[in-house]
Write a structure and sequence with these properties.
By secondary structure, the chain is an alpha/beta fold. It has three domains: about 140 residues, NAD(P)-binding Rossmann-like Domain (Rossmann fold); about 140 residues, no CATH class; about 70 residues, RNA polymerase sigma factor, region 2, helix turn helix motif (Rna Polymerase Sigma Factor, Chain: A), CATH 1.10.1740. The chain is built from 16 helices and eleven strands. The strands form two sheets. It has a seven-stranded parallel β-sheet with strand order 4-3-2-1-5-6-7, with helices on both faces. Strands 9-8-10-11 form a four-stranded mixed β-sheet, with helices on one face. It is about 45% helix and about 15% strand. The chain binds nicotinamide-adenine-dinucleotide (NAD) and magnesium ion. Magnesium ion (MG) binds next to helix 7.
């Protein structure tokens, strides 16, 4: 019998969070929800709390605290507010695993707090590893914590590695759909509006990752994420465009053999696998039909036009706080683009400036990451002028 897992979902009101709750809903005998958290969407958090009856909820936007508190007054649910509460609730004795589904740098502190308490991590919040991969993975090792990837590409690699732990990885191929602007020219991209960038061909995700997918920055962040999850060198990681998003990624071993994991694009599958590893639970997800996909195709990424991808490789090669700089600048430019403050093609230019101007630190401490993040946000906001 598989023991019931007690889980905390940080960012339960987002795209990953709500899909994780669908998994829980489909398998009530396997999960007990201890904590749910949301930032701004109080109504959804309240609704989720009433359905899943967690021990505690956190609404990080403190203005919404009273609304949540009042709505849950008849329930036996503790209600907390603010960023610091995230790091406190993950310490609860009863939690086995924390699903980190917050978007961006905001997820770092609570992930570290969970690791320090020895909680297993199902990691969706890739920015945590981009910002401070060395610190997060070394702390996980120190506290005997496993980090189970939720990102579909990394879940694919992880699934391909089952039973292969003593066999060296020669290289991995991360697949990328190419996003909505695959094959487009720089001239086309100059005029792109956020509404176009927000339409992803294969995945329905939060706004930030959708924009990152359209610039290929998402793949860049995933390259850095893969380095830390699987202990790889930059030249062991390659990216291949695969517009159908059926092959989720590939591992190549030293004998030349390649293993790929495939299936229809549905985040519930990698979420469920991370929550239940090493078990596979039955699911009702639609099945792949070869006849509907007579050809799976592959292309080289266009790194001249989509410069965020090579910038991420550059940050990875430099190491230190460089990918923290890249991430902070990227969070600012994505927000600016979503508010119509900058052109789509300005995104890599601004990232490059931030990478050149912020002081490089070879061996950053936690406080160096915090400072680098803040300095980079200030600089980038200044460059944009908003
Ligand atoms: P989303 O925007 O849909 O949801 C984000 C969640 O985080 C929400 O619950 C929101 O309330 C919360 N949040 C936002 N800002 C916060 C803050 N400052 N403090 C505390 N909580 C905050 O995002 P998403 O698409 O679900 O992505 C979540 C993470 O998972 C991201 O790191 C993303 O890269 C990763 N991811 C997502 C997908 C996907 O299909 N959506 C796939 C792979 C990886
Ligand atoms: Mg992914």
């Amino acid at each position: 019998m598989i023991p019931k897992k007690h889980i905390a979902i940080l960012g339960s009101t987002g795209s990953i969070g709500t899909q994780a709750l669908e998994v829980v809903r489909a398998h009530p005998e396997h999960f007990l929800v201890e904590v749910l958290t949301g930032n701004g969407n109080a109504d959804l958090l309240i609704q989720q709390a009433k359905e899943f009856k967690p021990n505690a909820v956190v609404i990080t936007d403190e203005k919404k605290y009273q609304q949540v508190k009042d709505a849950l007054s008849g329930e036996d649910i503790k209600v907390y507010a603010g960023q610091d509460a995230l790091s406190q609730v993950v310490e609860m004795e009863s939690i086995d695993m924390v699903l980190t589904a917050i978007v961006g740098y905001a997820g770092l502190a609570s992930t570290l707090a969970a690791i320090k308490k020895g909680k297993q991590i199902a990691l969706a919040n890739k920015e945590t590893l981009v910002v401070a991969g060395e610190l997060v993975t070394s702390m996980a090792k120190e506290h005997g914590v496993n980090i189970y990837p939720v990102d579909s590409e990394h879940s694919a690699i992880f699934q391909c590695l089952a039973g292969e732990f003593h066999n060296r990885i020669e290289k991995i191929y991360l697949t990328a759909s190419g996003g909505p602007f695959r094959g487009k020219s720089l001239d086309f991209l100059k005029k792109v509006k956020k509404e176009q960038a927000l339409k992803h061909p294969n995945w329905d995700m939060g706004a930030k990752i959708t924009i990152d997918s359209s610039t290929l920055m998402n793949k860049g962040l995933e390259v850095i994420e893969a380095k830390w999850l699987f202990h790889l060198q930059p030249d062991q990681i390659d990216v291949v465009i695969h517009p159908q998003s059926i092959i989720h990624s590939i591992v190549q071993f030293e004998d030349g053999s390649m293993k790929a994991q495939m299936g229809l694009p549905d985040m519930k599958l990698p979420i469920q696998y991370a929550l239940t590893y090493p078990h596979r639970l039955p699911s009702q997800f639609p099945r792949f039909d070869f006849m509907k996909y007579p050809s799976l195709t592959f292309e080289k990424p266009d790194i001249e036009t989509f410069r965020c991808l090579p910038l991420a490789f550059e940050a990875l090669r430099q190491g230190g706080n460089m990918s923290c700089i890249l991430n902070a600048a990227n969070e600012v430019v994505v927000r600016a683009f979503l508010h119509d403050k900058i052109a789509f093609t300005a995104i890599p230019d601004i990232l490059e400036k931030a990478m050149q101007r912020i002081t490089f630190i070879g061996k950053p401490s936690y406080s160096d990451y915090v400072e680098t993040d803040q300095e980079t946000r200030n600089l980038t906001t200044g460059i944009i002028g908003y």
